Amino acid sequence: MPDWKRLVRERIAPSAPPASVHEDVVRELAAHLEETYEAARSRNLNEPAAIHLALQEVADWHALAAAIHCAESQENPMNHRTKSLWLPALLTLLGASVSLMATQFLGLQPRLVWIHGMGITLYWPWLAGLPLCGALGAYLSQRAHGPLRARLAAGLSPALIMLIVMLLILPWGLALDGLHFLTLVSFGFGLANWVALPAFALLIGALPFLRESSTTETQRSTT
Amino acid sequence: MTQRIRSKIARGSGELAILSLLAEQPLYGFEIAKQIGERTGGALKFTLASLYPLLYEMEKRGWVEGRWQANSAGRDRRYYRLTPGGRRQLAPLRAEWRTFFQALDSLAGVSHA
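YS: structure for the whole thing
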């Protein structure tokens, strides 16, 4: 049988402020998991299946830690969402915009790349700086105990916003120019240039701050 | 929006379910989840992740209080009991939900579904 207290502490402590995860909380959650496990064993489930069933009680330890923190501090969940998602996303967007302006101000020219006879303008100096912005967003979200999806969304926010903008622009473009092959190709290039490549660059920076949950997933599946 | 409404409904029903159970006797977390599941035929289900944040919030509001004591198997468990404040919440909550279901019934005939 696993050491439930250790298991809870390992999963919840990295995601929650120390003040909200006092020993009583760990002890109580561990006792709940232990009883869930024992109830499963009494129904003749084998040990790995019983452990798996007990761990299914918590789908997202980050979210649980955040919910306990909100409950303990009587904090409005909206404040938590603001701190863990909206604010980091806004700062990431601001960072990405400022770095684009800075590259233009410094005279760093984009590179024109030809693919199958079509030119695509690569803002490589900007793209090179984007991992820092992605890291900033994901880090700020992690610091505010944001769950994995909040950290991901905060880190990728400039690309996500560009995606929304492009999806809003597409119908207008089609309405004005009609459905032409060239319109769709330019839209595809625009999507690659302003959404896919920035998203990739942002993700590189955000990755170290997303890893914690994947470790938890691994721990969960191997326990 | 729909999810937020659902979440509020789930939260409100959870509060009522917990207060109603604790009005009968003090229980610890696992027992609360088990009894809610059993007595509602599985229609209401609490996992660890949904139960404890709600319990801690209700405790902060002063509706319930938790105290460690040994269960029938001699293991220490945190038993929750209703406080006088929690008991005062129960009647208005029940009335609120009754009104809600009556309104829903008159609109959608849910009680005959």
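YS: worth flagging: Residues 4 and 34 of chain A are 7 Å apart (CA to CA).
IM: good catch. Also The interface with chain B takes residues 24-25, 27-29, 31-33, 35-36, 39, 56-60, 63-64, 67-68, 70-72, 74 of chain A (CB under 8 Å).
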